[in-house]
Design brief:
Shape of chain A: globular
Radius of gyration of chain A: 30 Å
Strand content of chain A: 15-25%
Number of helices of chain A: 15
Oligomer: homodimer
CATH architecture of the largest domain in chain A: 2-Layer Sandwich
Largest sheet of chain A: 8 strands, mixed
Strand order of the largest sheet of chain A: 7-6-5-8-3-2-9-10
CATH class of the largest domain in chain A: Alpha Beta
Structural class of chain A: alpha+beta
CATH topology of the largest domain in chain A: Heat Shock Protein 90
Number of domains of chain A: 4
Distance between the termini of chain A: 66 Å
Helix content of chain A: 25-40%
Chain lengths: 535, 535
């Protein structure tokens, strides 16, 4: 007979799961599903951190990346930056603990946001090769270099330090160097480390990146501009976007002792007048202690906040790449005939400011694969996204745009358009809603979709204008050709024409001859569609 | 001038992130991206837990689900089961702590696996309505009912008990009742609670489910069979699938003091002979203390394990729904003309046993939408998957199958087929590789894709046979019609025919007349494709 299990027996199996164990078992959630993606993810997490670190310290980033092949499926990845370095006591936590970092608790645009990335790479290294990650860091030009060999104690999600050292002749400048040994696979085309670094250089024209590939090739991306992008600032949650549970937590833990000061200091866009308005509407005194509100009372300011007219969230604290910089980067990367870029005004989804930029390059070198799908580059907070294209809001916005209106081929007016074009879409935000921890695709929020489509239409119109101008120019030059072709004939036979003219109306006949030539030409070109935007 | 930030200032912002905070901010990862999905997810997590609990205690499950509308976007969800109940001290952790549970650390087929689901629902409730979740549970028929009002302290990921009670006249039988108040939206068609429960009843013919919808309708799904599915057993990791990092951890924490006993007890399919073989190949003594191995030595048994011939992982401990039960369920649910089902033999991906089942219903009631896409039902460990269809291995396998070979319409031989058919695909496994924490889609492992395609082909062949038989039957009956149509004529004109026959060969002429009728008919039917399976 089958054994019946009681509540007590079932209880005996209940256990806490460490977040490191969780991700160890679910490593595909972090971008480590297969060896080639794993190699890319490791490089990506380290480079993102390097760029963030240098920029936060307002240093023009210099990043060095080296990927060495140790065996058929084993690689050594080294990433070094010229950032401010990391203070000794924080090194073990930053690299040896999942969900630890400086960016999660701030609403500020940055590449990292979750405190998972780099420690996930450390976890993956130990899982596949058993090796610790080596971290070297120096925080002052004349100081020593601290060296740690770190693993993660997955059962506790705590760093395990295997070796710790401090040397005088370590790094040459301030910054951090990280070395990981992992299982991986090196591919050279799509989704590759090479492609990721190329796109990173394009999106970060203020950064210099040196890359030595597993085949020993050295790629140098020198900075195109010598100015850092403006420093994005942290903002406070906006009353329109805040959720009840979060507000309740904020009310409970605030250091302010009056509701009115809480409102003015802990959320954005609330001054003394709005604070008073909110309190009156909520039926609560301005001097009430936020910590003392009952559950029912806590709900009232939230509802009141939605009714009071407030300024929209600060959006001027985002840092887009900028039209000029994107164009600069694109021109460096590819020789096309036509370029255009558009940085839209910042807007908001669920209380989070965001800003969309679109750029495109058309023709020229790209004509080599005239009939293929366009090349789409997706970026979020300066970081190229190489995987999960089909689940990404950017891809969806592109394939839902009718590109025939802008002079490209597109079967059925939807899907990926075809033509000699590279299209770049960038989302900058204080909080990019990724579809998974591996940060490969942007979730499909309607506000985000709408902005991307509008930006695409802006650039699409420029493109259409260019394509039409080209077509017109070709027609004009053809007209001239024809004129030049018939002119000698006309002159030569002027007398005969004069005679004929007396008898017949010869103009329409001549026009027909000339037009036949032109029409033939135009048919080859295929007229591009109208510009009827709104859907 | 801009302020330069030093390593020390940056360090001051470093902080630990609680897993509850992480998911609070990333709630879309848990299936709470929008109000209608959130309502479904809450019901799903509670029902999955109820079914798991009853089955683990070998009780035929009775689940009661009630969804009440409290306001335009506010709902109260109650789910009650007849399981064994939960012991008092475990209640707060199970409902008030993310990453806590009994299923994560076992390799055993179950609906829950990550220890996130139900506490995520509690988190979502407090985030949107600020309300605690009420849990009532009774573990012995004549015992008291324990009542808890629980929230999650998100900063610590610890349960916060707002109220605790114990009453005599609580639940009528052992089991658990959970009540949550959430923001949500009720939809009645696709992706709805209604649809989820209907499919759950189909996949769990041994369960009785009563559902009272927000509109007050009562749906009763009575159990179709009175026998529980066999109890899946937990297995140990198989040497072929284990990763270095995991093995190192196991070696370090094992209670066994000899390498040989470690191998025989902590991984599966290793007996004393294989254990010896592994040790010899690894150049390690049988009596070595596993805990004392150096890093380099730890790698050796892993490599040796891959070389020793071992039996494949136990697969007989999976519990599929079974062909008979699925057919029973399908017949209950839909009146079709033709049904077929196939449960394939268990196989393995990355060391994890899994088993694919496919069933289909064709024609009958389904003919109402003859030309529409087929209905696809995806299931994992008895649980219907309603979202993220396009990222799921099941959908991919279906759309990559050439359904024209099996008599369905499909544009270009790929994509979703069209026709009066419902197709069900179920994956049972000790570890289903979901693409996100919300467990809505199965990751795209080649071994899994292959098995699904093979199972589809099995059922497809049955379908083709049926469709052909039908076509043949229609042809035969038409032949009879024609015979009956011409017979009187033949008889009437027998004399004339006899005369003609003397002069001409009239048989071919008559055949032509009769065949013309038949061909017309056949063209209407369209001949179904050949069965050239291998791709």
């Amino acid at each position: 007979m089958e054994k019946v299990r009681t509540a007590e027996e079932l209880a005996a199996q209940q256990r806490e799961i460490s977040v490191a164990e969780f991700f160890e078992k679910n490593r595909h959630l972090l971008g480590f599903d297969n060896p080639s993606k794993a190699l890319l993810t490791v490089v990506k997490e380290a480079v993102d951190n390097s760029l963030d670190a240098a920029e936060e310290a307002r240093i023009l980033p210099e990043v060095f990346v080296k990927v060495e092949m140790l065996g058929e499926d084993r690689f050594k990845v080294t990433v070094e930056d010229n950032g401010p370095g990391i203070v000794k006591k924080e090194i073990p936590n930053i690299f040896g603990k999942l969900l630890y970092g400086s960016k999660f608790h701030q609403l500020r645009q940055s590449r990292g946001q979750q405190g998972i990335g780099i420690s996930a790479a450390v976890l993956y290294a130990q899982l596949t090769t058993g090796k610790p990650t080596i971290v070297e860091s120096k925080t002052s030009p004349r100081g020593t270099t601290k060296i740690f060999h770190i693993k993660i104690d997955t059962l506790k999600n705590e760093p395990e330090i295997l070796k710790e050292d401090e040397v005088k002749n370590g790094l040459k400048h301030t910054g951090t160097r990280i070395t990981l040994e992992i299982e991986g696979k090196y591919v050279q085309r799509y989704h590759s480390v090479d492609e990721y670094l190329k796109q990173t250089a394009l999106a970060n024209p203020h950064a210099s990146i040196t890359y030595i590939s597993p085949t020993g090739e050295k790629h140098e991306y020198r900075r195109a501009i010598k100015k850092l992008p403006k420093m994005p600032k942290a903002i406070k949650p906006h009353p329109y976007g805040v959720e009840l549970g979060i507000l309740m937590r904020m009310l409970k833990s605030t250091p302010y002792t009056k509701l009115s000061s809480f409102l003015q200091n802990e959320v954005s866009r609330v001054g003394s007048t709005s604070a008073e308005g909110i309190c009156v509407l909520a039926g609560l005194e301005l001097t009430r202690r936020p910590q003392d509100l009952t559950h029912e009372e806590q709900e009232r300011p939230l509802k009141a906040m939605q009714k009071v007219k407030l300024m929209r969230p600060q959006t001027d604290w985002l840092s887009p790449i900028g039209e000029k910089n994107i164009l600069e980067g694109l021109k460096n990367m590819i020789k096309a005939e036509f370029y255009t870029a558009r940085t839209r005004e910042p807007v908001v989804y669920r209380g989070n400011p965001f800003q969309i930029e679109v750029a495109l390059a058309y023709g020229g070198e790209l004509k080599e694969k005239q009939d293929a799908e366009i090349i789409l580059m997706r970026l979020a907070n300066y970081v190229p996204l190489l995987y999960q294209a089909s689940s990404c809001a950017i891809t969806k916005a592109v394939t839902k745009t009718n590109w025939r209106r802008y002079g490209l081929e597109q079967s059925g007016g939807k899907g990926m358009p075809h033509g000699p074009m590279l299209l770049l879409v960038h989302m900058a935000s204080t909080w990019v809603p990724f579809t998974s921890e591996s940060k490969e695709a942007i979730a499909n929020y309607p506000e985000i979709m709408k902005e991307i489509k509008l930006a695409i239409q802006d650039c699409g119109r420029d493109l259409l204008r260019y394509i039409r101008k080209q077509a017109r120019a070709r027609r004009e030059s053809r007209r001239l050709d024809i004129f030049q072709k018939y002119l000698p004939l006309v002159i030569e036979n002027a007398e005969i024409l004069a005679e004929s003219k007396k008898k017949h109306n010869i103009e329409p006949i001549l026009e027909k001859v000339v037009n036949a030539d032109l029409i033939e030409e135009e048919e080859e070109e295929e007229i591009v569609g109208g510009e009827n935007e709104e859907e």
